[in-house]
Amino acid sequence: MTDPLTTYRNEKKYGFCPGCSHGLVLNALDKALVRLQWDPAEVVIVTDIGCVGLSDQYFITSAFHGLHGRSLTYATGIKLAHPDLHVIAMIGDGGCGIGGTHLINAARRNIGITTLVFNNLNFGMTGGEHSVTTPPDQITTTTPWGNLERPLDIAQTVATNGASYVWRGTAFDKALDERIEAALTHPGFALLDIWELCVAYFAATNKINPKALVTTMETLGLEQGLLRQERRPEYAEALQALWEPLRGQPAAPPRPIPTRHATDLDRRYAIVIAGSAGGRVRTAGKIVGLAATLCGLWVTQRDDYPVTVRSGHSISELVLAPEEIRYTGVQHPDALFILSEDGYKKAAHYLPGMAPTSQVLVTPEFADVATPARKAVLDFDKIPGVGRSNMMLALIANGMGKLDVLPAAALLDAAEQVSRSYAQQNRETVAAALAAA
Description:
Number of domains: 2
CATH architecture of the largest domain: 3-Layer(aba) Sandwich
Oligomer: single chain
Radius of gyration: 32 Å
């Protein structure tokens, strides 16, 4: 048996300004931990930037210090990875503003983190600028004529969005350690909105004292005390229960692709298809890639297109090889398709460096492009029975027929498998294009 811990603090003295309320909150946390007697190694204090960010160094627990407004993201990751740990996130009102979306989502998930908000109503570390909780008409370095913004109600924000334990009060509450202990032992997301005094800036400028903090809450209509306490599933625990039966299983069932066809390709072979978005370039790339896989080859495919999706370029880079592909980049393609002006603008840089044995396959308007490679013209008008919506797919299939790298049977087989909705249309288009090759 080991002796009970009488403190979770180390020998370091607080580095806060004299009169800063942060020390009061940390002392209350220490008292709560002493009563709980948790293993310090299983307690993780997570902080970010701001005066509150100094706090983790004063405890003998585990700790993590990160970027401003992000303490809850780190705390979430820690809790999900190790649900048995006791995770305490410490964040200032500045961090709540910067990381507001993290605050809302932690509450929404009801993840088992105890969040202590050191709410001193301004950015105390960087010079006393106004924050999301600065009350109206208050003077700060960035609101010298008075704050015009409505303050964020942190407590009600998280309560409305799913936090299952929410309390608001001040650092001067004589039972603050008991409030913290209740939050620490609550099975879900618990937040204490603790109003404090920043004596260096806010309190001095606005003549705020402990009593005035309470008066300000009342003036703003902000309820004090325990605002929410309910039981609902804690996220990390629920997630573990969901995952446990699936442990050791793949996220998606394997779908092996059997080798059904043969090819004489005995080296790495790179294909670049350069066309326009919306022209089914990526679909064609998938068909070529699957056809190669059906021949027992290794395949990689990299697609590039703008965020607009159906306008601009569409590029598909494929690497086919009889052995595992360690490098997926394409510097000098063995075959380059140029099917539109959009594609030409993105792929023209390949042309000068292509080998004389490589092949450039172009539509008639690009028949005169300069390149050391051999050229073949792909003429859509010579592929009967295919609608213009499938023009690029037809041109690519026609070009693959001219290259004679993969057997026609593999391309037809792949055309049916790439998309169930368009299986017949794909096969008919590829068949017509190969017949015209």
